[in-house]
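Field reference: sequence -> structure
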Amino acid sequence: MKAKIQILGGILVLVLLECAVAYIVIPSPQDVIRAAEARVQEAPTDGAIAGQELPPLSPDEETIEMDLGDPFGITAYRPLSESTMRVDFHLYATIRAADQSEFEELRKKNENRFREQVNVTIRSSDESELTDPSLGLLKRKILEKTNNILGKPMVRSIIFSDFSFVEQ
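Structure field:
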């Protein structure tokens, strides 16, 4: 009986020691929030496109729709649901008319990176994003990635045309 009590006491001491170490090592939620706020304030913004805002359009500035390349046809197998999804669409971007030539040059230069990012975005989207009638979250994700690839915030909005989503 005495041996059982000693073993139980040893286990209890070990568990208490582990709890004390975890209490000391794991930061509190307030510490995590403070550290995240400090990182955000210290982050360099010289190369960050996503945080930049587009200059407001003057009333006489014209925007145009630019084709973002061949239509997309993305097929992806989803192992968790044992289903395959097929997404077909065509993408357009609205830009200032004054930026048209620069946009075309940057788009051609980064065409493959752009297509890869769109493919990754669609493949990583869940069903609710793909069935949203306005496709708002997908548009924002693609808008941010497009402006990052271009190196400057030129694209004002993303337009989906001929969107089709099928899951089998």
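Note: The radius of gyration is 25 Å.
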